[in-house]
Structures are given as structure tokens and as C-alpha cells.
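Slide 14.
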Amino acid sequence: MQMQIRFWGSATVMFDHFDAVLLARMQFAFTVSFHIIFPAFSIGLASYLAVLNGLYLRTKNEVYFELFNFWKTIFAVAFGMGVVSGIVMSYQFGTNWSVFSDKAGPVIGPLMGYEVLTAFFLEAGFLGVMLFGLQRVGPKLHFFATCMVAFGTLISATWILAVNSWMQTPAGFGMNDKGQFIPLDWWAVIFNPSFPYRLVHMVLAAYLTTALVVGAVGAWHLLRKTAPRRAGMMFSMAMGMVAVVAPIQIFAGDAHGLNTLEHQPAKVMAMEGHYDSHPDGAPLILFGIPNPAEKRIDYAIEVPKLSSLILKHDLNAPLAGLDTVPPELQPPVAVLFWSFRVMVGLGFAMLGLGLWSLWARYRGTLTSNAWLHRAALAMGPAGFIAVLSGWITTEVGRQPYTVYGHLLTAQSHSPIAAPAVATSLIAFIIVYFFVFGAGTFYILRLMARLPRDPTPEIGDAPLRSAGITPGPAQHPGPHMSGKGGSHAH
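Slide 15: predicted structure.
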């Protein structure tokens, strides 16, 4: 017991120079970073399962059904990990952010309740049918259950993004005599100015994330020649999705950026690295090192006036800088500057991969181009990194507010001591890395176990070659089973 106390005591010494607010923000950032990767994957994967199930019903091609069975197990594990990590994250509203919960609860509480009632119950109710009910309910009702799971994941994303978007661009509310936000117009609360843009951007990000994972798994097995037919099918579908969705996502991201410039200009100033205003056209800073002390970007590589062209569609349009924002209301530039560039850079890398796959498809080398497969395998985690970078850009850019323009983060935390928050943060780090690390390792093991393609029945081919002397009859070995697909490699 004394050793345990000394361990936790020495561990919390590291955080002595942090205050409770910063530690609470670090804890929420850590837990939500683990959580967000699972819904980002399961939203896209649920829709992919619905597509595979529908294609099987329509074409009776067994490959679609075999891929459905392969990915549904992975979906079940990812879904479970997403639920557990989300529940843990939600408790922090009461432990670390009780003042925020009290003030914003009348608005965000019902929305999160609707997410449970309309989405989580729908997903959980039909998930069992999708996983285990095919022989009991029949193929058509089973397909309906799969579609309901996919629909439930989209509805879940809708409600959560409505909550978060309201915190970014609050609308449709008033204040009561206790200083609480109260809803005056639910339509305005839900469909706040940033909600449509952020919903489209997030759903497309989820589809890209899933497509890149599916493509990476297909590429892995094509390189290993494990199951060329199955791997080729999933690789073709994934690369087709990337080729279609990546350019749409770039346009959606541009529209979202223009909306952000209108409602959260300080966030865009920090993303662009514009410490100073530019009255006759702002440059686009491609790379550089933010220098907060001197209020400039060191070693900047920039394109003159291109930022004004992108954001205002006019080369000479003036753009305000952070010099127009009080220092205490400025978001941290360095974090936003780099997270935004990681997200955008990966977005264009996805576009390049999609265009490369279209060229390979045109030439008939989609399933034989080893370099394309290596590139797709390397891009497998890119969707998760882009989602995390986008989330960091969105949430850090909202600082120093929890409800933008109305409630400061410093006014939102619970009256709790820094050592208590530090202790729970350390506990979260240790438990999360063990639990979710093991879960992620198990998912990767499942992805590596794609069954081999079925081989033809031995009776479909001659048992011996033509000749004068008949050879001995050949018997099928362990890898020649006509039923196939039972050996994992």
C-alpha cells in the first residue's frame, strides 16, 4: 500500500506546475482521442457491411457474403470499444466540467439523450440480428437489420455533431436568471450555422477512414497472395470509394472553412498563421515555424495573396489577423497551424492515392500493381490521423471558450484540485493503453486472418494427365477442400 501511494504521489509531481483546468482539458483530450477513432471507423464500416449484404442479395456472388462475414466481426469489436470509451468520456462532464454541465445542460442534455434513444438503441437492437440472426430471420430481414445498424451510426453522428456544433456556433438559446443556457428554438439549436458543414465533413471523413483501412487490408493480402479474389474485391471497392469521396471531401472542407471564417474568424487566423492583418491580400503560408513570442511565422514558405483567393475568392481581398483579437481571446497558434496542415496534407495524399488507383484500374493493373498496394498499405492509418488532426483543429480553435463567445473554459471546470485530476489522468493513460491497446491488437489480428479463396472441387478437373500408363489417383490435401475458406493465413 505504501509503495502504491508513493507511486501515485511521485507520478503526480510531474503535473505540479499545471493547473486543474489544463489537466482536465488534457484528460478530456486524451479520452476523446481514443474514442473518436472507433466511431470514425464503425460509421463507415457499418455502411460498407450494408453495401456488401445488399450486393450479395442482388448478385448471389459468394465473395460479397464472405467479405461481409469477415468484416462484421471486426465491426463488432470496434463498436464495443467505441461504446466503452464513449461512456467513460461522458462521465467527465460531471467530474471535471460540472459548471459547464450545469450551465449548458438544458441545451446539450436533451440532444445527448436523443442520441441514446434514437441511435444507440437502434444500433444495439439490430446489432445482434446482424451478427447472429441470419438463419433465424432470413436474408431480407437480416439485410434490413444491417441497414438499421448503418443508419443508427449515422443518426448517432448527427446528434453528437449537433451538440458539438452548437458549442462552436451557438444559436436558438437564451439565458435564465441562474446564468444557464436555455433553448428557445430547438430547430435553431440543432441546425446551428456550422452543423450542416461539420456533419458532411465528419461523415465523409468516416467513409474515407474506413475505405483506407479496407484498402490497406486488401493490399496486405494482395501482396502476400493470401486470397487474391477476396482481397482484390475489397481493394477495388475501397479504392473506388477513395477516388470518389476524397475530392468531395476537399470541396466540403473548403465550404466548412468559409463557414468557420464567418463565425469563428480567430480560429481561421490561427490556422493560417496570420498574426498580422493583410489589407491588400493575404499570403497562403505553406510551411513555417510559429513564433508566439514574436508574433510571426519564422522561415515561412508562402504563396502571395493565395489565402485571400481561397477564403474570399479575390486576390486583393483584405484579411484580418490576430492583431485584431485581444491576446486573452486568441487560440494557440502553433497547435492549430500544424494540426490543420497535417489534415490538409493527408487529404491531398488521399486524393493522390485515389487518382493513382483510377489510372491502375484504367490500365487493368489495379490488383497487380505492387507499388500501388504498398502505398495503400502505408495510407491505412491516414484516415485516423486526419480525423484526430481535424478534431484538434476544431476543438483547440474554439479556445478559450467552451461555448464560443459566451462561456470561457476557465469558467467551466469543476472545483476540483489539480492532484486529483492528475491522478485520474495517469490512471486513464495506463488503463487505456492496456485495454484499448489489446483491443486494437486483436482487431489487427482479425484483419490478418483473411481465409484463402476456395479452390475448385477436385472432381471438376482430370485426376491424371493423359498417357499410356495411368497414374495413381490423387486425393485432395488439406488445402484442396472444395468448401474452402476454412484455413486462415
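Speaker note: Residues 278-319 form one domain.
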